[in-house]
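Example 3.2
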Amino acid sequence: MPTTAPTAPALGDVTASDSTLRRFLHGLPGVDAVGLEARAASLGTRSIKTTAKAYAIDLAISMVDLTTLEGADTPGKVRALGAKAVHPDPTDRTTPATAAVCVYPDMVATAKEAVAGSSVKVASVATAFPAGRAALDVKLADVRDAVAAGADEIDMVIDRGAFLAGNYMKVYDEIVAVKEASGAARLKVIFETGELSTYDNIRRASWLGMLAGADFIKTSTGKVAVNATPANTLLMLEAVRDFRAQTGVQVGVKPAGGIRTSKDAIKFLVIVNETAGEDWLDNHWFRFGASSLLNDLLMQRQKLATGRYSGPDYVTVD
């Protein structure tokens, strides 16, 4: 189900005004929901065994943004999470580190200290996460605070109300402003796909985010009933694939929320490989937003190594 889009030179003109942006986004092909879901379900039936499964589990571990976004977060919890991100299995130092630790802005400095000297990045949610209901200057202050504290990555939420009202230029301008405030930090743009209602809206949001300069497009906050699904992730992977074909610019994808088992993670990796291709099978371009997923990946990794499941105390409960 390819997405047809104008050639790269024409894309520079589509954000010139609200009307040209609207015309472009509503000119994207409608999504065949039945075909999209059937394709995602079909890819989910692929069987991966032995050596390939071990590789996939290690790859998935390296793609996890280990996340804690609770009101009860403490410095001690964040330090423990950082230690786990650096050495997910202290009994086996061959286990890869996770991609990042994701925390609220006030916990960035603590997380940065916890992962110092490792490859683990510190990501921070910002822009009045998760609802995004704040004035732009408040959102930008949130971003600047996180960056000043050492955040390597910023996960922002779009104004879903503005998007659903068709005020696309407002959403575009906010992403551009947040991108500028993020400086050298990579920007992940969260759509909250469960609130966008339709696949057509997810496709439009994907292109809108990429046109505005997103380094990653992300499904969800993990704070609503419907989060990442194989179908909505497949749709976003089609969008980044086609955006690169048109512009030469590669954008990452991050499904977040609801991915809890190794089996689920491997299904998503198959979808990545079969839709966007091998170039996205790297944690620079694909992430899992998760908290409990890592534990199951570690349990399955131990099972492959020893032939048996470890006891329930083999992994920490975060």
